[in-house]
Design brief:
Blueprint: H1 3-28, E1 48-52, E2 67-71, H2 72-84
Antiparallel strand pairs: 1-2
The chain binds zinc ion (ZN) (2 copies).
Domain HNH nuclease: 20-76
Family: Belongs to the HNH nuclease family.
Protein name: Putative HNH nuclease YajD
Length: 120
C-alpha cells in the first residue's frame, strides 16, 4: 500500500466514524441546537452537527455524554471560542471563517439531490 493510499484510508475511516456517531447522536437527542435552540427536521437536519464537548473526536461514549447537537453556526462559534481561549483575542465574526470542512452538514448550504442519509 502506498503512502497516499494509506492516507486515503485513514480519511475514509474518519468519515465513516463521524457518520456513525452523528447518526447515534441524532437518535439519542432531540433535534434542537443546544445553543440557539433552533429546531431541525427533514432537510434542515443536515445543518445540525455533533459537537464534542471536550473537543476530542475520539471520545465517543455510547451514552452520548460527550456529544452536543449544535447547528453549523453555533458549532463554528463554539470552536472559535475554544481557539481563542487563553489568547485574549476578541471573538470576531467567525461565521466567515474557513476550515469548516471537517463538520458534517456543510453541504447543507447547497441542495444535494438524492442524498439523504438522515432518513430513519
Ligand atoms: Zn445554533
Ligand atoms: Zn465541535
Amino acid at each position: 500500500m502506498s503512502h497516499s493510499d494509506a492516507f486515503k484510508k485513514i480519511q475514509q475511516d474518519l468519515a465513516d466514524r463521524e457518520k456513525g456517531y452523528r447518526a447515534k447522536a441524532l437518535k439519542m437527542f432531540p433535534h434542537v441546537c443546544g445553543s440557539c435552540a433552533r429546531e431541525f427536521e427533514g432537510k434542515n437536519l443536515k445543518e445540525l452537527t455533533v459537537h464534542h464537548k471536550d473537543h476530542n473526536h475520539d471520545n465517543n461514549p455510547p451514552d452520548g455524554s460527550n456529544w452536543e447537537l449544535l447547528c453549523v453556526y453555533c458549532h463554528d462559534n463554539e470552536h472559535e471560542k475554544h481557539k481563542m481561549k487563553g489568547y485574549g483575542g476578541p471573538v470576531d465574526d467567525s461565521f466567515k471563517s474557513e476550515g469548516f470542512s471537517a463538520f458534517d452538514g456543510l453541504d447543507s448550504f447547497f441542495p444535494v439531490a438524492g442524498k439523504d442519509e438522515n432518513k430513519s
